[in-house]
Amino acid sequence: MTEHILIERPEAYPGVQVILFNRPEKKNAFTRDMYARMTNALHMANGDERIRVTAFLGTEGCFSAGNDVADFLAVAMGGNMGTEVLDFLAALLHSEKPLVSGVDGLAVGIGTTLNLHCDLTLATPRSLFKTPFVDLGLVPEAGSSLIVPNVAGHQRAFALLAAGEGFSAEEAHAAGLIWKIVPEAEIEAATLATAGKLATKPPEALKITRALLRGDKTALSRRIHEEARHFGERLRSAEARAAFEAFMRR
Ligand code: COA
Q1: CA 31 to ligand 1 center in whole angstroms
Q2: What is the share, in percent, of the chain residues with pLDDT greater than 90?
C-alpha cells in the first residue's frame, strides 16, 4: 500500500525532518490516517534532539486539497469524527521545533490553515490559498479565525475565511500570510535549504526566540477548540451534507 505521508530525513540537510504529502491522485487530501502520521512525526521531533526543524512539502502543483471530503461525508452520515484532526492541530500548536512549509499550487482548507502555524512559508507564484469553509456549510478551523484577522485585518480575513475567495501567492504574501515567493523549480530546494539553515542555529536560542514571537498560546488553543465545537456541529448539518454529497457526485 502506498504511504500517503512520507517522513524523511534528507542527508544533505542535517537536523531536518520532512513531512511529505504523497497522495497526488487525490490532490493530497488528508485522511484520518494521514493526520495521525503527521501528528506522530511532530511528536517524534519534540522528543528527538537530532531533529531541529520540521518541513512540510506537497507534490508538484499541489500542496493539499484539505480534509478528505469522503471523511467529512462519513461524519455527516452519522459516523464518528475521531480525534485525529484535533490531535494534529494540537501537535502543530505545541511543536517545540520550528515549522517550515513549501507550497506549490493548490492549498485548500487545512492546506492553507496549517501554514498559519508554520514559522516560514515559501510558495510558488502559481499557488492558490483557498478556504471554502462556508461554501461547504462549515466554519474556519485551526485557529484561523483568530490568526488571520490579527495578521491580515478583518477585510482580508473575511474574504479568505467567510467569502471563500482564493488568494494568489502574491496576495497571501501582501497579507503577511506567507514569507516569500520562489520559482516553481526551486520550491523543494528552497524549502529544504531554509529548514536546513535554521537547523544549524543554536537550538536553545532559537527555541526561546520562537516562543517569544509566538507569545501565549492560551487564546489560540481556546479558539481552536471553540471552532472545533462549531465545526463538529456543522459537519452534521443538512447544508454541509448536501455540499459533501454534491462534491462526491461530480
Ligand atoms: N477530498 C477527497 N477527494 C478529493 C479532494 C478532497 N478534499 N480534493 C480532490 N479530491 C479528489 C477528487 O475527487 C478527484 O478524485 P477522482 O479522480 O477519484 O474523481 C481527484 O482528487 C482529483 O481532483 P479533481 O477535482 O479532479 O481536480 P481539480 O484540479 O479539477 O480540482 C480541487 C482540484 C482541489 C479544486 C477540487 O478537487 C476540490 O474542490 N476539492 C475539494 C476541496 C475541499 O473542499 N476541501 C475541503 C476544504 S475544508
Answers
A1: 13
A2: 99
25 CA to centre of ligand 1 in angstroms: 9
- Domain hosting residue 181, numbered range: 2-186+199-248
Strand order in the sheet with 53-57: 5-8, 16-21, 53-57, 99-103, 120-123, 180-181
Q: How many domains does the chain have?
A: 1
Residues with CB under 6 A from ligand 1: 26-27, 29, 65-70, 106, 108-109, 132-133, 136, 247
Question: Hey, CA dihedral for 37, 43, 46, 48, is it positive or negative?
Answer: negative
Helix (H), strand (E) at residue 42: helix 32-47
**Three cell numbers, residue 51:** 531533529
Bridge partners (DSSP) listed for residue 100: 55, 120
106-108: strand order across its sheet: 62-64, 106-108, 128-130, 167-168
**Arithmetic mean of pLDDT over the chain:** 98
The answer to whether residue 158 sits within a structural domain is: yes
- State the residue for C-alpha cell 493548490: 106
Model confidence at 2: pLDDT above 90 = no
Q: CATH code at 109?
A: 3.90.226.10
Residue 92 contacts residue 42 (beta carbons within 8 Å):
yes
